[in-house]
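Quick entry between incubations.
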Amino acid sequence: MTTVRIPAGWPATEEQARAVQDRLRAQVVLDEPGPPPGTGHVTGVDVAYDDERDVVAAAAVVLDAATLEVVAQATAVGRISFPYVPGLLAFREIPTVLAALDALPCPPGLVVCDGYGLAHPRRFGLAGHLGVLTGLPTIGVAKNPFTFTYADPATPRGSTSPLLADTEEVGRALRTRDAVKPVFVSVGHRVTLDNACAHTLVLTPKYRLPETTRRADALCRKALREAAAPRKPLADRAAADPTRSWGRTLFERQSDPVTWAGRVLRAAALGQRRTPEIEAALEFAGDRDRWSHGREVFELVRRGWADEEQFTPEQRIVFRLAELVGKVAHNEAGPPPFFDHHAGWQIGPLAWRLAAAADPAVRDRIAVALGERPPEPLDG
DNA sequence: GCGACAG
DNA sequence: ATCTTGTCGC
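Done. Structure below.
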């Protein structure tokens, strides 16, 4: 497995990313038929994320197009290079996908992407982007219609209907299993739409999604599991950390957990350098109307301390508290899926770790914000 | 102006 | 994409 760095000059803003798309899309080749279905190699690529740990894992799995047996596979891990923005997915996935493709011991043949090619607001989705950067023939097979419209294809497998941006056919809804929701096929690079659909049908003898996608999905999840630091079971951590049960009961006694978390954060941040992320979290905790956006606050704070090395241990604790404010608020008022409900339990122990190392005035202030002190002096 | 919106 | 419990089906 290879490790990826974010490429130099990689777009940092949405505006830059859109400019890159506008520049590169002229290089897409649409007038080649592409490899005949059922011959040579077909390669699936997919990506899995752990946003909390800022880890991304990609996989490329090469299948024999005739037998659908795995011929070769490779993975790569790296840091997340771009947030998820509809229309800019490629900037989040491509660096790691390229590394996985590079690590393959054989030519990939046709590359099947999890997403779109031509069917894209600027006609340059993930599959087209990957095709232009590698020169390989690519297609996109997506699970959802994005912003496009389509009529439901007829019931039997193999039926299609045009995927429309207004009246322009940008792809096709293709039924790969009888009476099951279609997939959405579009051209990436150097393949026609007819051929892309034919490939997709060859790749779906048993399931709705292409074997390439299924294999790559399973492999990148596994790579992600192995890349993320293995964690001890919950019970072990509870035994090793007596502050945990105190943190739990303290949190569960709060009738207004978000406001409480905000007070704790304010006390903890006192006297420390305030970053914009901390300011935002503090302001947020005081505004009940915004709690449903807790997840965004979490993500903002998480991005804010991406360069962990530049912060002191105390500042890192403040950042973690700010993240927890976002998590707790999201669990309290946001839509599912929720963060794990243990999140709030960490607030007390974390804040007290800071208090224990601080001077008596700060310690008192944190104790007041928490509402109590731990039953016995905690070290760490 | 606001929401929806591939993964 | 990710979080999640049970439930349905081959």
